[in-house]
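Co-fold these.
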Amino acid sequence: MTAYVARRILGLLLNLVLVSMFVFTMLRLVPGDAATAILGVNANPENVMQFKREHGLTGSLVEQYVDWAGGILTGDFGKSLRGNTSVTETFLSRFPVTLEIVLLSFTFTVFFGVTSGVFSALRQNSVMDIAVRFVATLGIAVPNFLLLTLLLLIPARLWGYAPPFGATNPFADPFDNLRLFLPPTLLLSIGSSAVLMRFTRSGFLEVMRQDYIRTARAKGLAERVVTIRHAFRNALPPVLTLAGLQLGALLGGSIILERVMGLPGLGSWALDAIQLKDYPVVMIVAVYTALNLMVISLIIDLSYGLIDPRIRYE
Amino acid sequence: MAQEIRAQTLEAELFAPEFRKVSFAETLLAAARPWLRRPMGIFGLIIVFLAFFTAIAAPVLAPFDAQPFVGASLESPNGTHLLGTNNLGQDVLSRTIYGAQVSMAVGFWATFIGVAGGTFLGIVSGYFGGWLDLIVQRIMEVLASFPGIMLALIVVAALGRPKEGGSDVLVLSWQLRSLSLAISLGFIFGVMRVIRSAVLKEKSLPYVEAAVTLGASTPRIMFRHILPNVFPFVIVTFTTIIGAVILIEAGISFLGYGVSIGTPSWGLDLSNRNREYFLVAPWVMAGPATALTLTVLGFNFLGDTLRDILDPRLRGSR
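Predicted complex below.
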């Protein structure tokens, strides 16, 4: 177990290095350089040189990468090419917004996805089952940006209401904060809930057909015990894996949500940065996102052992 | 020897009553039978056909050109402009019809690149195993470490935003190649995993061993023997991901980082930039929103049905 975790963490770190190299190279492939993008085409060549020296844009690609990676080891992610502010500071101020979006929408996804999936499977082919599946099929097809745009447009048209611009601290005024975050995160979770629901349903149906379920029923166990203790537990591992994959979709969706709602999170920050070739910003967001997804997938793999004691890690 | 066997087979076909020629019509009927019990599949098939047809025949179908200002700004739906006009006075119906071109071109090609790349890597990685497998898995994991839309945004910035024009779906497909490639990267990993695990199963079957014994070359075994046997998975992954691909293209264009301003595209026409106009003229949204949702729905129905028919393990579970 310890050896397994150690090996996974080692693999994770290697992957993180590869991810940062990939993004770094990609951003340097961008036609035109960052200095011209930020200083303008008519900038004084001396200013351009000075700008490049200040931001470590001189030297070969490898030298630049080593320079950047060396900074990280000392906790320095560099300065934004635009505005010259510390990337780490801006990251820390924007990070809670994205974290809240992803946490809320992930909770909704798991809750609605799993409960409606199990519910639908237990009442296979009933009217409710068909209704839930219909909503899920539609939920996968409707683009999230359309739902979010409608979320802003409908209240605006009916009551002239617009949500306040910018984000508030969830701890200072939780009610105010949730009024802003709940509706869009609920909408964002529709698509991934639907994917998870369909997967949970088919997995659950599969398990309910197994012999040990029949045995459990034959022993005279209450139906509730059969579903929860026997079926649910066995259907859970693949559902968890898929839930982890949905986290990626939600992180991507957060970019769109932040842009539509005008929230100052990591997604909208990276979006502007990609356009302006502000590479330290893109790097920190990309590395953070990748780390996030890898850690969650590790946690999910480890949780398998808790759910199913037969699973051994080697 | 071969001649002899052929003669015997022929004889068997001619004289044994249980061997009879199957007519083309019967083959067709046998192929169509599973569809007849799945109305959603037929619905999906019709939508998909219509979407491709609209994309190809857009110049004939659309009442106006997509780009010129053919009416007043924000006309509500009327006899001349069935779905009204947008803020620039462009005909919404015509833009919706032409919008099918971007969605279908990028949707098809990004899926094609993703599935072809994933299938190739899956077969090679699964068949060879060992260090090659390890390297392929590592590299693919890097691509899988990002949300698809973020990866596509970064790669499309690296390759350069497409500059497209014209109203021919094939020309557009070529012009939008960087966008298609960028979107496809996010899907290669998933396809590769599916095909790889299928190849791992196939690899141990007697026919592969037989081909090896007969001295078939490795590429021949991989692509003439194994590929046809995992092909149902290729088709199923293709139809399963194309809906998601179309949504990602629309999402990127919605954010303003995909197709150029002015190009009729469902994502771009629903873009944030036009939100203030949607408030006073909601009809501007109706065309692209309905077309986009319906197309993705159609592809998903088709994908579900194909998976249901081609993958017996999942039969009836969805």
